[in-house]
Design goal:
It is built from 20 helices and no strands. It is mostly helical. Helix 11 packs across helix 13. The longest helix has 25 residues.
Length: about 375
């Protein structure tokens, strides 16, 4: 376990102590070739060996649970460890959740559903367990919709609904709407109004955007058209400008990984973004900064650069450094800017800002004139 702690602290540990590690690995019969691989793979092998030597070593299991599972090679090692953890610690529901996630990555849906049922039986009142278990029924409804088994879709969504998880309401409602559209080739305003009567305007808009995303599913499950949808969608789209910056940010950013299995694409904001990206001007500086990478990854590089050009001129010194960095980096990526000196200027300005922050911090810590004079502490202090 000390080896793992050292690896987490310093990724160069393997190279600095290669001879010592080879001796340890040889003694414990750990394959030596793993030393030439990624740090995570070394950690995985060491933690797995720790579990083999002590099957009740909870610390080793927790290290395994923190490892990334996107690569099939990693899942191959992680899965048996998690299965052993589930068996050895019958009260542990988090191991079940992690194993369910791994099964979903393998497209082993039935296994994922069964292990989530086990998690629910272990911790029926845990909100994370309840949400993941309810979500499994929505995922099942997506699979049944592809088979056009509408009765099972209704049953799955009904089961999910019984958990009364507010964060899932939008997804349950949208799946009801798309299921009805597949059956009837039309968008039912009546069903929409009935299912969204307790929704805010923001929640209704997100539901419509997700429905449109499902309509564009290239798998061919969605109907060719849903009569009545376009006019309803456009009427709501006109109201987007009244949303707060935070609400707009939530509509523009990609879905959380938790919900990726519900849709063919995690990015659903395209219908809101016109060619000039005018909606971006309604975002506060913080929300805009947080959405930059997401927008660039989804082919909105040009409109992000245009928006940065506007904002960097009006921003305060601290924010302008951030905007200028993104602007120069993205222009460089675009190929329209190639001078390395522009990056050097940013670094110099950042260093100057750090000096200013330290100076202000010292002034905060030193007594001000009002403190020395014994002024009322309820008055506003100089910052």
């Amino acid at each position: 376990m000390e080896i793992i702690k050292a690896l987490k602290h310093d990724s160069e540990f393997v190279y600095d102590y290669i001879e010592e590690l080879e001796a340890v690995f040889e003694f414990f019969d750990i394959p030596l070739d793993v030393l030439g691989k990624d740090t995570e793979k070394v950690i995985c092998q060491v933690a797995k060996k720790a579990i083999d030597l002590d099957p009740e070593n909870r610390e080793a299991y927790e290290i395994i649970m923190d490892l990334p599972m996107e690569l099939q090679a990693m899942r191959k090692f992680i899965e048996p460890c998690l299965m052993k953890m589930v068996d050895i610690f019958p009260e542990d529901h988090l191991a079940c959740l992690k194993l369910a996630h791994l099964f979903y990555l393998k497209n082993a849906y039935r296994k994922a559903e069964n292990i989530l049922l086990q998690a629910y039986s272990r911790a029926p009142h845990d909100m994370q367990v309840r949400e993941k278990y309810a979500l499994s029924f929505i995922i099942a409804s997506v699979r049944n919709l592809k088979r056009k088994n509408f009765n099972l879709v209704d049953k799955d969504l009904g089961k999910a609904e019984k958990f009364n998880i507010r964060s899932l309401n939008i997804y349950i409602t949208e799946k009801k709407l798309i299921s009805n559209a597949v059956k009837t080739n039309k968008f039912s305003r009546e069903i929409f109004d009935e299912n969204t009567k307790d929704f805010s305007l923001y929640e209704k808009m997100k539901t419509l955007l997700l429905f449109k995303l499902d309509m564009e599913d290239p798998s061919g499950v969605a109907p060719e058209k849903a009569r009545g949808f376009v006019s309803i969608f456009n009427s709501f789209k006109k109201k987007v400008k009244i949303f707060s910056s935070n609400e707009l940010y939530s509509l523009l950013k990609s879905l959380k990984k938790t919900y990726h299995m519900l849709f063919w694409n995690p990015f659903f904001a395209s219908p809101l973004i016109d060619g000039k990206g005018q909606l971006l001007s309604s975002l506060g500086n913080g929300d805009f900064t947080n959405i930059i990478i997401d927008l660039v990854e989804h082919n909105y590089l040009n409109i992000v650069i245009i928006e940065l050009e506007k904002r960097r001129k009006a921003a305060n010194p601290k924010t302008s450094v951030i905007f200028d960095f993104y602007y120069i980096a993205l222009c460089h990526f675009q190929g329209s800017l190639t001078q390395p000196s522009r990056f050097e200027d940013i670094i110099a300005r950042t260093d100057a800002l750090d000096d200013l922050v330290r100076e202000v911090d010292l002034k905060r810590k030193s007594p001000g004139l009002k403190d020395i004079a014994g002024a009322d502490k309820n008055e506003n202090e100089w910052i």
